[in-house]
Amino acid sequence: MDDKQQTGSDDRTTQDFPLGGGVDIVGSDDVADDVQIESYNDDVDGGGEMTPRDHIKLLREKLRESNALKQEYLDGWQRLKADCVNYKKREEEGKGEFLKFAREGIITDLLPVLESFHMAFSNKEAWGKVDPSWRTGVEYIHTQLLQVLAGHGLTQVDPIGAVFDPNEHTSIGTVPTDDSSLDHKVAEVAQLGYRLSGKLIRSPRVKIYTQG
């Protein structure tokens, strides 16, 4: 009885037990002697191996490509930025031209009002007979109007005594003279001229001296 138990115990001791569902334990002798180091073949077509030098060369090529792409994006961004700046500049210039045109139209419409003041003041005899207090008030209004318009770039052109310039003046008649120094000079200004920011928007109507 004792011998059987001992024999059974010995049998169980020498029996091979499977590990993890029938997979035998591998001994240390089955481990490969040489372990292959990771090869640089990830970027090689066909699975060929690369040396470290080849791998560095490939990385440098990729770096150059990345730098070229970065420069392309940078150039595109700079062009876009320049286009945006130019667009804003054109918008500001267009807005300025529009405001200038609108201002010129309004001021041109006011020129007949200024001309009415000028005609009233030119008749000194009749203007001198006007009630002094009323005359002072009208002259003050005229001065205020001129100051406001001058603030927007309007200036009067009164060429009395200047040499007649057909590009700047409109002749409506002549005044004979024996003085050669007055020949072709402005003798009278029938209607004042006006400039807006240096641009002549109405030429003065004048009479010029002519030597007889």
UniProtKB/TrEMBL annotation:
GO molecular function: adenyl-nucleotide exchange factor activity; protein homodimerization activity; protein-folding chaperone binding; unfolded protein binding
Gene3D superfamilies per the UniProt record, alphabetical: 3.90.20.20, Head domain of nucleotide exchange factor GrpE (2.30.22.10)
Domain of life per record: Bacteria
Signal peptide limits: none
One annotated GO biological process: protein folding
Localization annotation: Cytoplasm
Keywords for this protein: Chaperone, Cytoplasm, Stress response
Bias (Basic and acidic residues): 1-14
Region (Disordered): 1-27
InterPro entries: GrpE, GrpE_CC, GrpE_head
GO CC term (a single one): cytoplasm
Described function: Participates actively in the response to hyperosmotic and heat shock by preventing the aggregation of stress-denatured proteins, in association with DnaK and GrpE. It is the nucleotide exchange factor for DnaK and may function as a thermosensor. Unfolded proteins bind initially to DnaJ; upon interaction with the DnaJ-bound protein, DnaK hydrolyzes its bound ATP, resulting in the formation of a stable complex. GrpE releases ADP from DnaK; ATP binding to DnaK triggers the release of the substrate protein, thus completing the reaction cycle.
Family under the similarity heading: Belongs to the GrpE family.
Subunit comment: Homodimer.
Name of this protein: Protein GrpE
Organism: Candidatus Lloydbacteria bacterium RIFCSPHIGHO2_01_FULL_49_22
Upper taxonomic lineage: Bacteria, Candidatus Lloydiibacteriota
